[in-house]
Amino acid sequence: MLTWNALVHTLISSEDIQRRVREMALEIHRDHPDGVHLIAVLKGAFVFLSDLARVLPGPCSLDFMAVSSYANNTSSSGQVQLLKDLGTGIEGRDVVIVEDIVDTGLTLAYLQRILRARAPRNLRTACLLSKPSRRKVDVTVEYIGFEIEDKFVVGYGLDYAEQYRNLPYIAVVGD
Ligand code: IMP
User: Fold this and answer.
1) Taking the CB of the first residue and of the last residue of the chain, which one, N or C, has fewer CB atoms within 10 A?
2) Is the peptide bond before 43 cis (omega within 30 degrees of 0)?
3) Is 68 in the pocket of ligand 1 (CB under 6 A)?
4) Cα(33) to centroid(ligand 1), Å
């Protein structure tokens, strides 16, 4: 009998993710020694944010946005819709967008555009994963955890049709 996680193959182990997230937290702290405002993009970034925030060695505040760019499928529609906006303003603040993955770059380009218009002092971006071969628009991502090939991945917050977000590692769905 097939079990739920027998359908996936580990691409990046939990230990490797934890190690890299710790390094990314140090990089972010180095660039923001006085503190940083982290804005996580729901839903996918919720696991990355919680691990990142807990190993960040300095002051940080948090907020959340939700966007939808995919409708239960594995290819980008190119349509980005704002589902939930921030709870507080970001004018004059040092902001880091926390995102699970940059694929075509359309979601991040949209987020960076609307957040930059609110005049933060600095706006940088942290992504756990990047698929450079899929990029359709040029976006700047200052902190990248891992570059991966053009494969649809799940786990560590990332889903396929709302499943697999709770896997503690990054996996490829396959048979
Ligand atoms: P982009 O706008 O094409 O860069 O896509 C960004 C969003 O698409 C991410 O925040 C994810 O929610 C989703 N996404 C892109 N690639 C994957 C993947 O391999 N697995 C799960 N979600 C993905």
Assistant:
1) N
2) yes
3) no
4) 30
Ligand 1 pocket residue status of 65, Cβ below 6 Å: no
Q: What CATH code is carried by the domain that includes residue 72?
A: 3.40.50.2020
Q: 123 C-alpha to center of ligand 1: Å?
A: 21
**pLDDT tens string 125-169:** 999 999 999 999 999 999 999 999 999 999 999 999 999 999 999
Contact residues for 114 (Cβ-Cβ < 8 A; gap 6+): 82
Each residue of 61-101: pLDDT tens digit?
Answer: 999 999 987 544 455 556 788 999 999 999 999 999 999 99
Range of the domain at 128: 4-173
Closest CA to 141 of 150, 131, 151, 149: 131
Contacts for 73-81 with beta carbons within 8 Å, 24 or more apart?
Answer: 74/152, 74/160, 76/103, 76/104, 76/106, 76/136, 78/104, 78/106, 78/136, 80/106, 80/107, 80/110, 80/111
103 is catalytic: yes
Domain count, the chain: 1
